[in-house]
């Protein structure tokens, strides 16, 4: 508990990085995000949990503008999200996203997957981009796979490449949307370990996951969503041992 409160003071001192205010989003008649207020401090790790269909993926997708919002505001580092063009490409680089399905470029090698954005969006030169890519692939434990194509890698390796590809853009924040749910069980830990290390290194992270062990050990805060709303927020210890809302109690009784 002491460790958590110390970390919280540290992040508070350096300011808020992602701020959502009164965000609303509809898909036709479905009110998928309802008055979402959420502030993520620099260096904070927030785990988002909740039943299927509660709006977790949509929330992630609005933060890097893969989805537009109907009302409210979203700012990253104090700036509203750009609507289009190069500024939007830079925003997508600032907000790294890792999806359930690895989404690597199938016709590019692992190394090319990690250099492409650096060269196109960050305007890095090729040799610098390759040097950085190799260092990142080493950091996530797949350096030996650099010249292979995604299909030649296991799911766990592909997901670690996807993390390296996002990190290569020097993101301000990383979004993970159920990054381990498409993996065979024996590959889940190798991906969670990379994410744990990233959290320890001070990366600001928003992680949608059903991995409660990860939430307990890596999160500064758990956000529980249901039916398009944030129903409850708490430090992990408190959320898991003493959830306040009936919705959270019910959800936890089904998954724990
Ligand atoms: P979660 O990630 O929590 O499972 P989602 O954000 O994926 O929830 O979805 C929330 C709700 O919005 C679901 O009912 C889903 O069917 C609906 N939804 C998601 N994306 C779309 C879309 N592009 N068009 C219409 N409905 C959508
Ligand atoms: Mg989802």
Quaternary = single chain
**Unreliable residue runs:** 1-13
Biggest sheet, open or closed, and with what strands and sense? 6 strands, mixed
Bound molecules: adenosine-5'-diphosphate, magnesium ion
Q: What's the order of the H and E elements?
A: HEEEHEEHEHHHEHEHEEHH
Subcellular location: Cell membrane
Family: Belongs to the ABC transporter superfamily.
InterPro entries: AAA+_ATPase, ABC_ATPase_HisP-typ, ABC_transporter-like_ATP-bd, ABC_transporter-like_CS, MetN_ABC_transporter-like, P-loop_NTPase
Main location: membrane
Produce the secondary structure layout.
Layout: H1 2-14, E1 16-27, E2 30-41, E3 45-49, H2 56-63, E4 71-76, E5 79-80, H3 85-94, E6 95-98, H4 110-120, H5 126-139, H6 155-167, E7 173-177, H7 185-200, E8 204-208, H8 212-218, E9 221-226, E10 229-234, H9 236-241, H10 246-255
Parallel strand pairs: 3-8, 3-9, 6-7, 7-8
Antiparallel strand pairs: 1-2, 1-4, 4-5, 9-10
The structure holds adenosine-5'-diphosphate and magnesium ion.
In words, what does this structure look like?
The protein is an alpha/beta fold and 256 residues long. 42% of the residues lie in helices and 25% in strands. The strands form two sheets. It has a six-stranded mixed beta sheet, sandwiched between helices. The radius of gyration is 18 Å and the shape is globular. Mean pLDDT is 93; it is low at 1-13. Bound molecules: adenosine-5'-diphosphate and magnesium ion. Residues 27, 30, 32, 50, 52-58 line the site of adenosine-5'-diphosphate (ADP). The site of adenosine-5'-diphosphate has 11 residues, from strand 2 and helix 2. This is ABC-type polar-amino-acid transporter. Belongs to the ABC transporter superfamily.
């Amino acid at each position: 508990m002491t460790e958590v409160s110390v970390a919280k003071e540290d992040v508070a001192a350096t300011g808020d990085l992602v701020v959502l205010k009164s965000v609303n989003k509809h898909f036709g008649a479905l009110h998928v995000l309802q008055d979402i207020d959420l502030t993520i401090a620099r260096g904070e790790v927030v785990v988002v949990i909740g039943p299927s269909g509660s709006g977790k993926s949509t929330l992630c997708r609005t933060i890097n503008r893969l989805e537009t919002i109907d009302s409210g505001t979203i700012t990253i580092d104090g700036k509203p999200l750009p609507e289009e063009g190069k500024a939007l490409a830079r925003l997508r680089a600032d907000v790294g996203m890792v999806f359930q399905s690895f989404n690597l470029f199938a016709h590019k090698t692992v190394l090319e997957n990690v250099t492409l954005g650096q060269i196109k969006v960050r305007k890095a030169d090729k040799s610098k981009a390759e040097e950085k890519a190799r260092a990142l692939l080493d950091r996530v434990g797949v350096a030996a796979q650099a010249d292979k194509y995604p299909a030649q890698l296991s799911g766990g390796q592909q997901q670690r490449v996807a993390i390296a590809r996002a990190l290569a853009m020097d993101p301000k924040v990383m979004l993970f949307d159920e990054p381990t749910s498409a993996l065979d069980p024996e590959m889940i830990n190798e991906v969670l370990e990379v994410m744990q290390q990233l959290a320890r290194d001070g990366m600001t992270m928003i992680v949608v996951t059903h991995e409660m062990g990860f939430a307990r050990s890596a999160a500064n805060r758990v956000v529980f969503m249901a039916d398009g709303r944030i129903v409850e927020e708490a430090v992990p210890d408190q959320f898991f041992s003493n959830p306040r809302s009936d919705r959270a109690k019910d959800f936890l009784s089904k998954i724990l």
